[in-house]
Amino acid sequence: MKVIGLMSGTSVDGIDAVLVEISGTTLDLRVRLLAGETYPYPDQLRSQILAVCGGEKLSMLELAELDDRIAKCFARSANAIQANQSPASLIGSHGQTVFHRPTTAENMGYSLQLGRGELIASIAQITTIDNFRAADIAAGGQGAPLVPKPDAYLLSDQIEHRCIQNIGGIGNVTYLPPQSQPNWEQQVCGWDTGPGNSLLDLAVTQLSQGELTFDRDGAWAATGSVCQPLVQKWLAQDYFQTPPPKSTGRELFGREYLQACITDGLAYQLTPADLLATLADLTASSIAASYHRFLPQLPDRVLLCGGGSRNLYLHQRLQQHLPQSQIVTTDDAGVDGDYKEAIAFAVLAYWRHHQIPGNLPTATGAKQPMLLGDVHHHH
Q1: Residue 256 neighbours by CB under 8 Å, 6+ apart
Q2: Nearest to 194 by CA among 126, 291, 263, 97
Q3: Average pLDDT over residues 194-200
Q4: ∠ CA 138-140-145 to the nearest 5 degrees?
């Protein structure tokens, strides 16, 4: 079955679109990537989304208009990705997260993704599944992370213990025990590790007066030195101590958090390069610390994906913090690291279509496995 997966993450770089051919169901699941492309948002729309993620207030009318504008961008991406191919029969759209409040003892979680599926289905004339997080939240889960189950069936190994580490705006991990272990799926777990590129990208934008939006290959950070006392101070923060299941977003690791980091950096007289090196080490250290603290055992291999997997400096820092694990990218296991998240939502849509639950309660904290996503037929 041909499926389109659409995803825009916390970095708000644009819409990652994939066209994949999927067969099988779970253990026999096979996914072939036919096309993958990132379609940037128009600048003004990206600025508005980032402002809303940063807490800017909207009227209901403005919210509706933003929802539609994002949906139209998603629909255009779906049409573009299959332009030279026979059309897909299903779209799985994650949408654009603009607000995420984790589940707590007092409050059911709340996660809002814009880019409504009914409009995408209408424009693309393809059945569209969206709103994947709601059913997991309704079952008491965090609604995140949702990639662990697709990861488990696409990237686990017979004998290796693996971690799939996505480094988008926020970092999230899926731990995959060997399939040869009894009840291996029950032992798959995952959580949001903390900041990925969110603080780094914001810092680069600010330090370069808007000339750069990210540090290519981590080249700028690599010229600085890590301030270890600061990393240790930042790691003492509550989120890093909290045991999983847990999820986070720009609400925590965003502009305000960065300003506090910059103030700390000034106290230590850090240069811009030192600050970037120290923020990169916070990402790497928080990932490694969470493995040591929360995993049943350290992985033999860590497979990186997401924008941060292309950051050579970040890769080196992580390898330094996890010397006993081999750190590669998911490309080495046959899944394109730039598009793995979009592929995951194509798989989740395919599972919803086949009435197969898509969440892993061990990763999200939900009471039970759930069918994920709302189905919108085109008319």
Answers
A1: none
A2: 291
A3: 97
A4: 90
Q: Which residues contact 238 (CB under 8 A, 6 or more apart)?
A: none
User: Where exactly does CATH 3.30.420.40 map onto the chain?
Assistant: 2-146+340-376, 148-333
> What kind of fold does domain 148-333 have according to CATH?
Nucleotidyltransferase; domain 5 (3.30.420)
Q: Is pLDDT above 90 for 80?
A: yes
CB 80: neighbour CB atoms within 10 A? 14
Alpha helices, DSSP H only, in the chain?
43-53, 60-81, 117-124, 134-138, 148-155, 184-187, 198-207, 228-235, 238-241, 255-267, 272-294, 312-321, 340-353, 361-364
Task: Categorize the per-residue pLDDT at 84 as very low, low, confident or very high, splitting at 50, 70 and 90.
Answer: confident
Query: Is there a contact between 188 and 148 (Cβ–Cβ < 8 Å)?
Result: yes
* Contact indicator for 288, 327 with CB cutoff of 8 Å: no
Those residues whose C-beta lies under 8 Å from the C-beta of residue 182, and which sit 6 or more positions away, are none
pLDDT at 245: 94
Tokens of 6: 């659409």
Side-chain half-sphere CA neighbours of 64 within 13 A: 3
**129, two tokens:** 């599944």
Could you give the angle at the alpha carbon of 115 between the alpha carbons of 45 and 39, nearest 5°?
55
Maximum CA extent, the chain: 61
Confidence of residue 379 (pLDDT cuts 50, 70, 90): confident
- For residue 58 the two structure tokens come to 């909207």
Instruction: Fill in the amino acid letter for 74.
Output: F
Distance CA 129, CA 116 (A): 10
2-146+340-376 has CATH 3.40.50.410 classification: no
> Is the pTM above the cut of 0.90?
yes
Q: How far apart are CA 261 and CA 130, in angstroms?
A: 36
> Which tens digit of pLDDT belongs to each residue from 262-317?
999 999 999 999 999 999 999 999 999 999 999 999 999 999 999 999 999 999 99
